[in-house]
Amino acid sequence: MNKSESEQAVVLVSGASSGIGEAICRLLIEQDYRVIALARNQPRLQQLADELGADCFPLVVDVTDARAVANLRQELPESFRDIGVLVNNAGHDTGGRRNFDEGSAEQWCDIIETNVQGTIRLTHALIDGMLSRGSGHIVNLGSIAGLKPYATGTAYVSSKFAIHGFSETLRLDYAGRGIRVSEILPGLVRSGFAQQRLGDERQAQDFYDSFEQCLQAEDVADTVLYALQQPRHVEIAQLVVIPVF
Ligand SMILES: NC(=O)c1ccc[n+]([C@@H]2O[C@H](COP(=O)([O-])OP(=O)(O)OC[C@H]3O[C@@H](n4cnc5c(N)ncnc54)[C@H](OP(=O)(O)O)[C@@H]3O)[C@@H](O)[C@H]2O)c1
Question: At the fourth CATH level, which superfamily is domain 3-241?
Fold first, then answer.
């Protein structure tokens, strides 16, 4: 662990109730970080916090709710308010893997609303604190879908291209001001993602089983920790991680 950053760092992880976000919370707690686990599913967050102990604070917030995100620090105990690291991980592809005309405009827009606007909102809510302390680290969960489009992914692919552009530009905005911006771009990860997309657990398992190999959520969590552990003069700009078989 890079003590200089983590000693003061409280890490906010969005999308902490499942998959990659949950794995990030577990790993960071193991590494002695203090973690705010943010998502909508209160029972799952509470279960996680009960398991991980007092260094994990569960925070029920919907990232599409502008007011809740803007005011989130007020919901935190004093000891969790100085957030030094933000992991923008909340995201979904509900209704995805269909041609554009086959999904509703509302579904497509909700993907953008969560994956892109949610990330922008959370970052905006926390950036002032980082700037005033002159240090911070923002880790955005992109995807290889943000590098190379695939058919049936219009909204999701657009959302991850946006995360790519946002991450690249944010890094330029704050160069030299103590704020690092890392983008993690995974390939296929076995998580709650396919079930969320398809609305059916069996179909989700069949989807993952149709690939020779998937990443595990823990593999992606390891890459986030790697980005956080670098010395202050090193910034992991992009980290692409894919399964091999
Ligand atoms: N799985 C993959 O193959 C893959 C590949 C590349 C990138 N990614 C990216 O990795 C990230 C995590 O996905 P995952 O695979 O771990 O999927 P997951 O298991 O479905 O987890 C998604 C998380 O996002 C949260 N979330 C969704 N909408 C939210 C909202 N409006 N407000 C707050 N939290 C919200 C969910 O919690 P609640 O429902 O409790 O709110 C859940 O904790 C996403 O950004 C995804 O695009 C995934």
Answer: NAD(P)-binding Rossmann-like Domain (3.40.50.720)
